[in-house]
Amino acid sequence: MHLESGSDYSKEKGRILEMSYDYVIPGRVQTFKGLGIPLVIGKREGYYIWDLDGHRLIDLHLNGGTFNLGHRNPEIIEAMLKAAEIVDIGNHHFPSKARAELAEMLARLTPGDLTCSVFASGGSEAVDIAIKSARWATGRRKIIGLAAGYHGRSGLSGAAGDDSAAKFFLSDYPDEFIKVPFNDLDAMAKALSSKDVAAVIMETLPATSGFPIPDHGYLPGVKALCEQHGALYIADEVQTGLGRTGYLWAVEGYGVEPDILVTSKGLSGGMYPIGATVLSRDVGKWLMENAWGHVSTFGGAEIGCYVAMKVLEISSRPDVLANAKKISEYLGNGFVEIQRRYPFLKEIRRSGLVMGLKFDHETGALMMCKKLYDEGIWAMFAGFDLSVLQCKPGLLIGEALCDEILERFETAIAKV
Fold first, then answer.
1. Mind listing the pLDDT tens digit of every residue in the chain (416 residues)?
2. Residue 144: how many CA atoms within 13 Å on its side-chain side?
3. Do 295 and 262 belong to one domain?
4. Structural domain contains residue 112
5. What is the CATH number of the domain that holds 282?
6. 356 and 230 within one domain
7. What is the crossing angle of helices 218-229 and 185-192, to 10°?
């Protein structure tokens, strides 16, 4: 397909768009072109990205929280380069200093009895590991997920949430994956009452459905129901963990201690892919019984482990977590003021720096996405609810940048 280049496109940008359409992601290129967002990211630094045509954008998408600590964070780059002087990805069959130290750190920093880590190359694989572990530990096959949940696009992870993509590839398992509405304890109780469920898997704040906030008592209620019916609780913290809510793990803010916790995206520091599934001691007993039950050549790559340890160290600093809560209030108050002037902003969902902005139109987030892009902000619409804009400022953001965000946001919403 020929993609016409206007005067505002660099020659290089047009070339990359053409090749991306021809060889990589034609559907996505066409979709974003239709929205008037022909973004090709070039330079990036801190919480800014630059389009190849020179257009600078404040990044409020952060690729699902991958860049919580900013693009090319100097401390993370230093840790990665220092590690690369000594190690490479390593050999997954043998013990390593990097994997052992990262696993110990995860055991220390995760809630409850989470002890054993199984490393992956990304979030989808880590969710697959969580589901396999739960099935082994309980001897049951069924998994309960949310009707509008998202846990990845691999085999098990793709079937665990909204399974439209899994169905597309004939990879859904309707008899093994049960879906219930979010915030509905009665539906959860009914689904668990059969007592043949291995686990409930939930994002603490479901990202792709626009970060709806759980009712008071909902998550503890789900955990109590799991315990009552012999099922395990899997907390998918891929997008909500690592300090984003002002707690290192979002589930901690609701007083829930999961049996399994999944982390990825931000764990990479945006520099080296890595994910981890952290299991309770009992759930992790399969690691002794079947030592090669799950192997991953790139899971827990040693350079990635050193990056992840630096990410955990930064993200758990008291001043960083305090900043997340402070900036949440600052931005939240700013959005409330804008909402008073523009009721088109219908609802502000906020848990720390995890925010969903719902607009009074079924495709309101799409419209805002385009206008914000024009005004120098990149924020992504929620894939399962196009009325909600995902707004995910970084952990290290300051008030000056917040003021710039609010000013540009108000300009954009006025134009919509």
1. 444 444 455 789 999 999 999 999 999 999 999 999 999 999 999 999 999 999 999 999 999 999 999 999 999 999 999 999 999 999 999 999 999 999 999 999 999 999 999 999 999 999 999 999 999 999 999 999 999 999 999 999 999 999 899 999 999 998 999 999 999 999 999 999 999 999 999 999 999 999 999 999 999 999 999 999 999 999 999 999 999 999 999 999 999 999 999 999 999 999 999 999 999 999 999 999 999 999 999 999 999 999 999 999 999 999 999 999 999 999 999 999 999 999 999 999 999 999 999 999 999 999 999 999 999 999 999 999 999 999 999 999 999 999 999 999 999 999 99
2. 27
3. yes
4. yes
5. 3.40.640.10
6. no
7. 10
3-state secondary structure of 327: helix
| pTM as predicted | 0.95
- As given in the structure block, the two tokens for residue 146 are 């949310």
Write out the residue range of the structural domain in which residue 406 sits: 39-72+318-415
- Our measurement of the distance from residue 298's CA atom to the centroid of its chain's CA atoms, rounded to an integer in Å, reads 20
Rg from Cα positions in the chain: 21
